[in-house]
User: Which sequence fits this backbone?
């Protein structure tokens, strides 16, 4: 009987793998034409000071509508990476964000843009960004590029050189999703980042006292290294209060605002 069950499980496994494979092929096929069909749009999510709810930045987040359905970036960004379509999509993101250069920018307001690991292998990336920034009159010091630790995993010298060049050109760098997967203290020490974004999964740590101790210790460590903290995934008042208690002045989450199209914020501003 046990044997039979095992077999059934293997079948199920293969079937779900096959379904996933087919889903990926469909996503990749759709992605190939998504740019020309103008199926992408950028949404923006405010980053807020929990003390006074003042907005001090926005993260740009891509949205893809395909066959009348919205496909989550968590689904299609990995496929875009594997198929290298992320190179063109990533450039479109930068161009679109700069072109619409959000009118809410002020001197203490950052605009954050996610970069996939593969984009950092493009030797022309920084040149492209500089060109677009000049063309749209974007000040590099108002732009923060979010990178994940997977980008640095190959520990190649060239990635470190490239990141240093970003900083030399005036852009800020943030380490995204810290506290998941490969988080390493050496990255906090060695990378030319100015901000660490603590992954929202750490907010879900149980039990509560452990959660608070962990977040306190982590944020104090980051502050001690002269880095700024963004807490991701604030969904409740209690979590917002925890940020205040921990001296965290940049918080992001549905509690404040979901990612929305730019037009929403523009109309709020001009009211
Ligand atoms: P991320 O960079 O860590 O972005 C934060 C994600 O958390 C976003 O998901 C955002 O909508 C979501 N989020 C914000 N507040 C809350 C909250 O309170 N609760 C919950 N449950 N979620 C919250 P999204 O937009 O689906 O993007 C997922 C990931 O896809 C991003 O994670 C990023 O890694 C990638 N991504 C999104 N846009 C881009 C892009 O333009 N370029 C690249 N290369 N990657 C992108
Ligand atoms: Mg991000
Ligand atoms: Mg993140
Ligand atoms: Mg993420």
Assistant:
């Amino acid at each position: 009987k046990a044997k039979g069950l095992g077999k059934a499980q293997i079948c199920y496994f293969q079937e779900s793998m096959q379904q996933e494979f087919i889903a990926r092929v469909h996503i990749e096929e759709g992605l190939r034409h998504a740019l020309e069909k103008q199926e992408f749009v950028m949404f923006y999510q405010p980053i807020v000071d929990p003390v006074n709810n003042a907005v001090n930045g926005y993260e740009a987040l891509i949205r893809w509508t395909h066959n009348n359905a919205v496909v989550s970036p968590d689904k299609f960004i990995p496929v875009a990476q594997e198929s290298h379509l992320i190179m063109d999509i990533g450039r479109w993101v930068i161009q679109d964000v700069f072109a619409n250069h959000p009118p809410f920018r002020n001197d203490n307001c950052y605009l954050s843009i996610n970069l996939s690991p593969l984009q950092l292998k493009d030797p022309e990336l920084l040149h492209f960004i500089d060109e677009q920034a000049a063309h749209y009159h974007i000040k590099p010091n108002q732009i923060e590029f979010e990178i994940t630790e997977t980008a640095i995993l190959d520990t190649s010298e060239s990635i470190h050189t490239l990141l240093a060049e970003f900083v030399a050109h005036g852009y800020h760098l943030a380490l995204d999703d810290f506290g998941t997967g490969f988080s390493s203290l050496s990255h906090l020490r060695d990378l030319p980042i100015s901000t660490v974004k603590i992954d929202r999964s750490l907010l879900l740590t149980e039990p509560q006292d452990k959660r608070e101790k962990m977040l306190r210790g982590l944020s104090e460590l980051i502050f001690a290294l002269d880095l700024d903290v963004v807490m991701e995934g604030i969904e409740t008042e209690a979590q917002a209060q925890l940020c205040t208690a921990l001296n965290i002045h940049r918080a992001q989450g549905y509690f404040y605002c979901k990612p929305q199209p730019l037009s929403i914020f523009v109309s709020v501003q001009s009211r």
Summary: Residues 177 surround magnesium ion (ligand 4) (CB under 6 Å).
